[in-house]
What does this fold into?
Amino acid sequence: MSQAKAQRETKRQLGQFLTPPAIAKAIVDTLPIQLNDMVLEPSFGTGAFLFALRDKLARTFSEETIAYWARTQVEGCELEAKAYATFRARWGETERCVQGDFFRFRMPAYNKHRYFAEITPRYDWIIGNPPFGGTIAPDIQDNLDDLYGFRHGRKIKKETYAFFIVKSLDLLKPGGRLVFICSDTLLSINTMRGLREYLLDTCLVEVSRLPGMFAETQQPMIVLSLTKGGSGLTVFGNALTREMVEATPNASWLVTPDFARYFTGATLGDFLVATSGMTVGRNELFVREIRNGQIEEFYDFTFSERLVTVALRQSQARLGKLSTAQIRHIRELEQAGATEPCVTVSKRAIPSLVPFPHPDYAPYNKATSAILYAPPDYAIYWKDDGRAVYTFKKSGPWYLHGVGGKTYFKREGLTWQLISSHLNIRYLPPGYILDSGAPCAFLRSGVNHDELFFIMGWCLTDICNTILKKVINHTRNIQSKDFERLPYPSWVSPTNKAVVVALVKNLLARAKQGERFQRGSTALAPIENLFAYIPGTHATLSASHQSPKKPRQLMLALE
It folds into this structure.
């Protein structure tokens, strides 16, 4: 994880959102916990779940029995000192509920090849509200990635609540239950696919809605119940089959029979390759707003060479770490007096006005909520094919070095906002440099040009947006790969397909003339109707239409 994440304010760094007592009580009251069950709460905060458990058992057992239970059958961790002190002041003396990091609690001796043999399942119940989006201590990040980052050959995202779940399952007895409040991002986003598939392999999974609200966060939460060694999946009362889940490209737990039928053919990724754009690093240095056909230029750029040193590379490295081999190689460069280019940015006393278009600037694809088409509102300083931007990125912190989407700069395609509740699709003319806030998609080699407009029409429909937001990724993010995972509408007849292409081209021409369209516009209604699903009309895939750049991808034989 980046240095920036490690330097966030304490509450965000811990990923801490304390459970309201009423929510803890509502969950605990549904659980058939017995007096002799061993219980673990791995991030108990001020103790909402543990006090709810104690109160539940106190309705049946004596005060003396409950005190003995609290000393012998309950274990837990809480990292934050203030929350732990609040808990201890109410709970009383205990050696089993400690202040500390759950990732260090009963952590197996680090051995990336044999750690399974060192874990002893010991709990009947693991209950709680693990941290969401927290920072993992840098000194154990790599160890934890080896311990919990892969299961059954699948990647588990290095996210605090994901690793809490995996570690907790290791500590849970066969037949035991884990009950966690966790982020609803678990349900559909592709980075959690490995975790979803691992849980389906190993547990009976039940997902229910949270019985209440958190005042501290707007992040939607769910209640996840896992019975170790069981099988099956129920989400919000709906039983889902493994086949339905696996029909979706992201193994979504939000699929339904109505949605599953769309995922029996090709996907948009068979026709277009989607990509994120570039993170400039400091937009104010290079990105300019276009106003009345002009740009204000505030800066001058000069180039020079600087010495390569170990200290410089350490300042750029992830977590400030370099391997022994890297240090040795860099030290050899340092001793040889090796240099690298860098750019100096100096502010002008008086900005100059530059007419746009201008050869030193390129239109920059900043995100906008417009659909169909929008003229460029921003330009990026791009003299000598972006030399200043590339040099700035190369000589900056480690996380700025990559240039997302560079292969597709200045190509014609489609684009949309990264953060949005809808896929606000619009045409991207040739010539643009791509911004990370507006992912793009470009036709694969050999695909007919009209597919760009047919797919654009599909993306304007309500059903496409519903599939995207209900099944592919229900968060506000719309990543490039989410776009590729959308089903391709192969049920549309060739005749209707030609009508869609003509309609979209007409709407696009009108938009370029200044007409503005919104989602729900009456002008889009005919397109919506042309994409009505017709069962049994999916075109077959033809191996003779393989893309030379991506052999596994197949084009539909529609004609």
In short: Residues 1-9, 11-15, 539-559 have pLDDT under 50 and may be disordered. DSSP finds 20 helices and 23 strands in the chain. The radius of gyration is 28 Å. The CA atoms of residues 412 and 430 lie 4 Å apart.
